[in-house]
């Protein structure tokens, strides 16, 4: 199982570069593993000829503003270039797993940079509606 998390780290590092992530790359693997073992954090991986080429992850949670409402929040989603069909299949498989878990609402997002910048149209084709925009406000000065 440890090898899977090591493979994920390699792909996650590629994603960070592609989307020009402003946060430092320091995944909290211990927390992810613990949440995965408890069923809260889920990861779907895709392989081609044994090589991990992508992942889609989400968190199950309860909507604190709507008692008893189970929600899923998409976490990271990355598929190596030239595997667009795999990416779409991963989304569909993840959504099916989320449905099976009894989730009432799934919150999807995409970056404004990289290949994922146009994912909103795919989400809409799956029935999603634009809810709002996410902004990030850096609260501390950049570390040098």
CATH topology: Aminopeptidase
Supply the CATH architecture. 3-Layer(aba) Sandwich
Q: Give the mean pLDDT.
A: 88
- Large-scale geometry: globular
| Strand element count | 4
The arrangement of helices and strands along the chain is HHEEEHEH
Structural class: alpha+beta
Between the first and last Cα atoms, what is the distance in angstroms?
35 Å
In helices, the fraction of residues equals 25-40%
**pLDDT < 50 stretches:** none
Determine and state the CATH class.
Alpha Beta
Radius of gyration: 16 Å
The tally of helices reads: 4
In spatial order, strands of the major sheet run 1-2-3-4
Please state roughly what percent of the residues sit in beta strands, choosing from under 5%, 5-15%, 15-25%, 25-35%, 35-45% or over 45%: 15-25%
Task: Report the CATH superfamily.
Answer: Gcn5-related N-acetyltransferase (GNAT)
Number of domains: 1
Largest sheet features: 4 strands, mixed
Give structural attributes.
single chain, 144 residues, alpha+beta, 4-stranded mixed sheet
Give an account of the 3D structure.
- It is built from four helices and four strands; from the N terminus they run ααβββαβα.
- The model has no long low-confidence stretch (mean pLDDT 88).
- The chain has a four-stranded mixed beta sheet with strand order 1-2-3-4, sandwiched between helices.
- It is globular.
- The protein has one domain: Aminopeptidase (3-Layer(aba) Sandwich), CATH 3.40.630.
- The protein is 35% helix and 23% strand.
- A hairpin with a 2-residue loop joins strand 1 and strand 2.
- It has 144 residues and is α+β, with helices and mostly antiparallel strands.
């Amino acid at each position: 199982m440890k090898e899977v998390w090591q493979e994920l780290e390699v792909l996650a590092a590629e994603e960070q570069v592609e989307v020009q992530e402003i946060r430092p790359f320091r995944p909290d693997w211990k927390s992810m593993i613990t949440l995965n073992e408890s069923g809260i954090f889920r990861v779907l991986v895709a392989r081609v000829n044994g090589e991990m080429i992508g992942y889609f992850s989400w968190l199950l949670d309860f909507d604190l503003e709507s008692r008893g409402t189970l929600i899923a929040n998409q976490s990271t989603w990355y598929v190596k270039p030239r595997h667009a069909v795999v990416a779409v299949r991963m989304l569909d498989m993840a959504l099916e797993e989320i449905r099976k878990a009894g989730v009432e609402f799934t919150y999807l997002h995409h970056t404004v940079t990289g290949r994922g910048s146009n994912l909103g149209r795919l989400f809409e084709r799956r029935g999603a509606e634009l809810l709002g925009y996410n902004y990030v406000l850096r609260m501390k000065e950049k570390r040098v």
